[in-house]
Amino acid sequence: MTHYLDFEKPLAEIEGKAEELRAMARSNEEMDIEAEARALDKKAAGMLRDLYGKLTPWRKCQVARHPMRPHCRDYIDALFTEYTPLAGDRAFGEDDAVMGGLARFQDRAVVVIGHEKGHDTKSRLTHNFGMARPEGYRKAIRLMDMADRFGLPVITLVDTPGAYPGKGAEERGQSEAIARATEKCLQIGVPLLSVIIGEGGSGGAVAFATANRVAMLEHSVYSVISPEGCASILWKDAEKMREAAEALRLTAQDLHKLGVCDRVIPEPLGGAHRDTEATIAAVGEAITAMLGEMNEIEPKGYVAARRKKFLNIGSKGLAA
Amino acid sequence: MNWITNYVRPRINSIFSRREVPENLWTKCDECGTMLFHRELTDNLHVCANCGHHMQITPRARFKALFDSGIFTEVRVPEPVADPLHFRDQKKYPDRMRAAQKATGEHEAMLVAAGEVGRTPIVAAAQDFSFMGGSMGMYVGNAIIAAAEEAVRLGRPLVLFSAAGGARMQEGILSLMQMPRTTVAIQMLREAGLPYIVVLTHPTTGGVTASYAMLGDIQIAEPNSLICFAGPRVIEQTIREKLPEGFQRAEYLLEHGMLDRVTDRRHLREELVTILRMLMQQPPPVWGELPPPAEPVVASDTEESADTAQSDTQS
């Protein structure tokens, strides 16, 4: 069952019609509808190309949040072997919004950490929609520390609406946990690579994405605030999210121009959710390439390179 | 247009307006409603003499009261690219900036200075909540980096007074990038073995709390300051229940182990000197009237930080 976004409504109608025709033909063998159905398919393909060829920033946000988009778990299952999840922050609890553990990426032992949003109501609740609590960040800190001690590269997969705004999360030091995770990212003497696979929501994303290389999927977004949040503060109207999304420059393409994103990974036509396998393969290739780039840095230079990269960000602005 | 409107009336007006009481002589405490005379309020560091409520204080006023004899040298901050995203909401970002500059008389939301406090040389940085909510953008990031570099250069501790609603949305992702950038600055201090003390003031929220404002060797807060990542309204909307009294206030954070101390602004100077001198392994402070510092500190050579932000690559 395909889940259509609001702007895909005309597409849904055409694809629905083609589906209906084929269903009718199945029940009535004398009908010859193949030519008509094929024409509809062709029309749908053209429309998909048009729609996704020029997605507005707000539509990209919608695609980035698409419920059928491949999530952290899917990437780990397909790209890594021997994944061994490790749990807990050793202080308070385990946070299912953050997955992480040891794994092999193309035979190389690594630590992989990511936000998991879940794929149905039950798992979404378990993973708290990918919104981490302090325990999640502290678990990530613990895993990064371990990676550092044993010389394992760290790969993070970012997909979060943001850190969880809850009472307990605040009481247990949400801001401190994020600050320390960002700090840890800047301290570890091993390669740190990050891929934004869906939503890069504010501080909750920075805590994992302060990396030597940051890649973004073509229709993923990364922003200081959600377009809805920005609209309600600056426009005093949450419905102005389209304008806010435009102004925030949160697309992978704009962030590449700003030097925040190092690499844009192309998505299949119609977005990652229309061809999960191809998307995951493309992300795998990007990780391979970025790991290769790390060979150019001398092993003692990962920290210095990372710091320099972030100190230089923003020195040019968009016009450059 | 005649002699009366052009000459007589302005003269009369000027005589009367001179006699009028200036509007800002008295301030009403927004906690207890007491009317406070401006000079007393300044002497009392903008703390209500009646109820002890801590009001906003500008970085300049704070530094005047903090540094010995009110003498300090401003540290130059490398100018970032103006309006990097060409951001516009209902107003253009440059227009909002100009309005904030006019209203505050300041250039941006952070002031960095070097000087002596109780004869203890320090570098201090203070965030200005009256300037666009103290929001953290490229400039604030550059200011913290400049402050850390100056502290390292002079071998002094850094004291930072935070006050901000969070990141500056008008700089989009570049404001978010100040979280890692300022964290690098704090790491410079760590590596140089220099203390970094954060004084959290009302309010300190959002991305500011989730970076440099929570990474101090010692975390002090002014009484009743709101300190949080997500604001109380956002949380109430999410969990749909009323939050406890005093939630996310300094005292609440102290109880939950997130702060070292909550200190009244009027005792802060003394406390900072005491702590800093111990951390710096200096002899105990000498209190009382001392002659003013002999020479103001020579302004730093900021060329060395040119690679962190280029002011000459304007779009």
Automatic annotation (TrEMBL), chain A:
<comment type="function">
    <text>Component of the acetyl coenzyme A carboxylase (ACC) complex. First, biotin carboxylase catalyzes the carboxylation of biotin on its carrier protein (BCCP) and then the CO(2) group is transferred by the carboxyltransferase to acetyl-CoA to form malonyl-CoA.</text>
</comment>
<dbReference type="GO" id="GO:0005524">
    <property type="term" value="F:ATP binding"/>
</dbReference>
<dbReference type="GO" id="GO:0003989">
    <property type="term" value="F:acetyl-CoA carboxylase activity"/>
</dbReference>
<dbReference type="InterPro" id="IPR029045">
    <property type="entry name" value="ClpP/crotonase-like_dom_sf"/>
</dbReference>
<keyword id="KW-0444">Lipid biosynthesis</keyword>
<keyword id="KW-0067">ATP-binding</keyword>
<comment type="pathway">
    <text>Lipid metabolism; malonyl-CoA biosynthesis; malonyl-CoA from acetyl-CoA: step 1/1.</text>
</comment>
<keyword id="KW-0808">Transferase</keyword>
<feature type="domain" description="CoA carboxyltransferase C-terminal">
    <location>
        <begin position="39"/>
        <end position="293"/>
    </location>
</feature>
<keyword id="KW-0963">Cytoplasm</keyword>
<comment type="subunit">
    <text>Acetyl-CoA carboxylase is a heterohexamer composed of biotin carboxyl carrier protein (AccB), biotin carboxylase (AccC) and two subunits each of ACCase subunit alpha (AccA) and ACCase subunit beta (AccD).</text>
</comment>
<dbReference type="GO" id="GO:0016743">
    <property type="term" value="F:carboxyl- or carbamoyltransferase activity"/>
</dbReference>
<dbReference type="GO" id="GO:2001295">
    <property type="term" value="P:malonyl-CoA biosynthetic process"/>
</dbReference>
<protein>
    <recommendedName>
        <fullName>Acetyl-coenzyme A carboxylase carboxyl transferase subunit alpha</fullName>
        <ecNumber>2.1.3.15</ecNumber>
    </recommendedName>
</protein>
<dbReference type="Pfam" id="PF03255">
    <property type="entry name" value="ACCA"/>
</dbReference>
<dbReference type="InterPro" id="IPR011763">
    <property type="entry name" value="COA_CT_C"/>
</dbReference>
<keyword id="KW-0275">Fatty acid biosynthesis</keyword>
<keyword id="KW-0443">Lipid metabolism</keyword>
<dbReference type="InterPro" id="IPR001095">
    <property type="entry name" value="Acetyl_CoA_COase_a_su"/>
</dbReference>
<dbReference type="GO" id="GO:0009317">
    <property type="term" value="C:acetyl-CoA carboxylase complex"/>
</dbReference>
<dbReference type="GO" id="GO:0006633">
    <property type="term" value="P:fatty acid biosynthetic process"/>
</dbReference>
<comment type="similarity">
    <text>Belongs to the AccA family.</text>
</comment>
TrEMBL record, chain B:
<dbReference type="GO" id="GO:0006633">
    <property type="term" value="P:fatty acid biosynthetic process"/>
</dbReference>
<keyword id="KW-0444">Lipid biosynthesis</keyword>
<comment type="function">
    <text>Component of the acetyl coenzyme A carboxylase (ACC) complex. Biotin carboxylase (BC) catalyzes the carboxylation of biotin on its carrier protein (BCCP) and then the CO(2) group is transferred by the transcarboxylase to acetyl-CoA to form malonyl-CoA.</text>
</comment>
<keyword id="KW-0862">Zinc</keyword>
<feature type="binding site">
    <location>
        <position position="29"/>
    </location>
    <ligand>
        <name>Zn(2+)</name>
    </ligand>
</feature>
<dbReference type="InterPro" id="IPR011762">
    <property type="entry name" value="COA_CT_N"/>
</dbReference>
<dbReference type="InterPro" id="IPR029045">
    <property type="entry name" value="ClpP/crotonase-like_dom_sf"/>
</dbReference>
<keyword id="KW-0863">Zinc-finger</keyword>
<comment type="similarity">
    <text>Belongs to the AccD/PCCB family.</text>
</comment>
<dbReference type="GO" id="GO:2001295">
    <property type="term" value="P:malonyl-CoA biosynthetic process"/>
</dbReference>
<feature type="zinc finger region" description="C4-type">
    <location>
        <begin position="29"/>
        <end position="51"/>
    </location>
</feature>
<feature type="region of interest" description="Disordered">
    <location>
        <begin position="284"/>
        <end position="315"/>
    </location>
</feature>
<keyword id="KW-0808">Transferase</keyword>
<feature type="compositionally biased region" description="Pro residues">
    <location>
        <begin position="284"/>
        <end position="295"/>
    </location>
</feature>
<keyword id="KW-0547">Nucleotide-binding</keyword>
<protein>
    <recommendedName>
        <fullName>Acetyl-coenzyme A carboxylase carboxyl transferase subunit beta</fullName>
        <ecNumber>2.1.3.15</ecNumber>
    </recommendedName>
</protein>
<feature type="binding site">
    <location>
        <position position="51"/>
    </location>
    <ligand>
        <name>Zn(2+)</name>
    </ligand>
</feature>
<comment type="pathway">
    <text>Lipid metabolism; malonyl-CoA biosynthesis; malonyl-CoA from acetyl-CoA: step 1/1.</text>
</comment>
<keyword id="KW-0479">Metal-binding</keyword>
<dbReference type="Pfam" id="PF17848">
    <property type="entry name" value="Zn_ribbon_ACC"/>
</dbReference>
<keyword id="KW-0963">Cytoplasm</keyword>
<dbReference type="InterPro" id="IPR000438">
    <property type="entry name" value="Acetyl_CoA_COase_Trfase_b_su"/>
</dbReference>
